[in-house]
Each structure stands twice: as C-alpha cells, then as structure tokens.
Design a protein that fits this description.
This protein is of the alpha+beta class. It is built from two helices and six strands.
Length: about 160
C-alpha cells in the first residue's frame, strides 16, 4: 500500500515538468512554422519583384513594387488588405538591391545613380534582390506561468535579379 502512494506522489511531482516540456515543444513548433511562413512570403516577394516588368527599385513608392508587396502579403494588389500573416504589413518590408563588387569580392548595396543600379535612367541592373523586415517580426511564446519577452524574427532572403 505504501508503494502505491509513493508512485502517485512521484507522478504528481513529475507531471508539471512533463506539461512544461510539452508546451515548450508545441511553442517551438509554432515558432518554426511562423518563421518559415514569413521566410516563404519574403522569398515569394523577392522572386516576383525580381521578375516584375518596369519595377524601379530606386523609388521607394514605386507602384509596381507596392503592388507586388500587397499581393504577396495580403492576397490583393490594392493597399489596405487584411494581412495573411498577422501584423505583417507591406510597410514593414524592405527591398534592397545589391551588386557583386569584383574588386573586393563581396556584395555591396547598389546605389541609385546612373553608374549604379538606377535602370530607369540607364544604370545597370542589380545582381541580387534582398528582402528583409525593417524591425523584425515579434513572436511571443505562450507558456503558462512563464513571462517571456518577445523573440524578434529577422528572416532575410537574397535571390538573383531576373529570377535566374
């Protein structure tokens, strides 16, 4: 009889630890799913922006780029649509262009000038398009009895210009 009581007591003491591990595993899965969803949206945005006809990467308010951002993040080309990923709006996404610097052997941000990447004024096309979130995406873990600060997810996508 004494053995049965000790087994019950051990189970009661061990159960909160098991529940915390289960909740942690679930939250880790939710974190991974959220990061992958954001990464996939940014990748799709970069691919569509890189193949969009008439996109001017030197104009922050370019209608073609705004349309691509809206379509990928809200499902509609018009501004003001409901975001597909909670709180991920087109104004939080930054599109940057880069070119390979053969002198240094690395990538540089491509300047918006005629010798740079201003294709609207006769400049050369960039080599890569980089899409990031300006301030990151705050992700809040929901584990009972633990107060945790949000984790900032900062996915970055680099794709070749023109979809090559």
């Amino acid at each position: 009889m004494r053995r049965l009581g000790s087994t019950t007591l051990e189970t009661i003491l061990f159960l909160p630890l098991l529940l915390m591990l289960l909740m942690g595993t679930i939250e880790l899965g939710r974190l991974t799913y959220t990061y992958y969803s954001i990464y996939k949206a940014l990748y799709t945005l970069a691919r569509q922006a890189g193949t969009a006809q008439g996109a001017n990467f030197c104009d922050e308010d370019d209608a073609v780029l705004q349309s691509v951002k809206n379509f990928v993040l809200t499902g509609t080309e018009e501004a003001g649509g409901e975001p597909l990923i909670r709180e991920l709006t087109p104004d939080r996404v930054e599109i940057r262009i880069e070119r390979y610097n053969s002198d240094r052997g690395d990538l540089d941000e491509c300047g918006c000038s005629v010798p740079g990447c201003d294709t609207a004024n006769g400049g050369l096309a960039p080599h890569y398009i980089v899409v990031t979130l300006t301030d990151g995406y705050p992700f809040q873990l929901r584990i009972p009895y633990l107060s945790l600060s949000p984790i900032l997810l900062r996915p970055q996508v680099r794709v070749p210009f023109g979809g090559l």
